[in-house]
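Quick one:
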Amino acid sequence: ALIINPGEAQIGHKESVEDTAKVLERMVSTIVWRTGAHSGLVAMAENSKVPVINALCDDYHPCQLLADLLAVKEHKGELKGLTMSYLGDAANNMANSYLLAGVTAGMHVRIAGPEGYLPAAEIVAAAEERAAQTGGSVLVTTDAAAALKGADVVATDTWVSMGQEAEKEARLQLFREYSVDEAAMAHAAVDAVVLHCLPAYRGFEISAGVIDGPQSIVWDEAENRLHAQKALMAWLMHRSGLAVVEGLQPVEVGN
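Output:
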């Protein structure tokens, strides 16, 4: 493994993303990048001969959703047809990812947050288009109770992400009606499960009683980051011909 920490490289500054991709592809079998702008990941992938994995960017967190949906599947059996509700900062990368990943799996996804903190129109449009193909559905609302009604899965995320520390007090007030606490969970299905990608701030986006209670599958979700990411890397290297993984179908030339 070649680990490059922030500040140790000049990606996009002194060295272009395109040049970096061409160097890294000669050193590694997969590039896993946690960065800011999604456009950088696109440029990296377009210029790399090895797989590029989005480990997190400002717009999406797909690797987290692999772990989350695996945890839900472990507890619920099937994903298709389930209702998944997300409360909080509905304009962040986790909300976008729950929306897109959920409808891809055929789930009915509800996203609730205050005005001005809802998913971008293009994200909603992409989710609706995908839902039409999978049998899922999309609801974006400012009404937390409506989003939670009968939900099988309830998810949330921190209200103050990295780089937003200066907005902390304003955000804590803004999102207080979207806390996943015992009162909120009363609107969900009695057997609903709860997700949080961590770190969690008890008493804010989620109560201690909920995250530490019997409906929480947060620790299974956290463990699944290991299993989901290993599976993703193995599958991508297998598909790209960089490795042969036992149990996966041989890759036909041209596919």
